[in-house]
Amino acid sequence: MADPGEAGREELGVAHRDPPPAASSPSGDGAAAEEEEPAAAEGASEGEAGEAGGGGEAKAEPPDGEVRPGRGGRPYRTKEKKQKVDEDEIQKMQILVSSFSEEQLNRYEMYRRSAFPKAAIKRLIQSITGTSVSQNVVIAMSGISKVFVGEVVEEALDVCEKWGELPPLQPKHMREAVRRLKSRGQIPNSKYKKIIFH
Question: How far is 190 from 147, CA to CA, in rounded Å?
Answer without folding.
Answer: 20
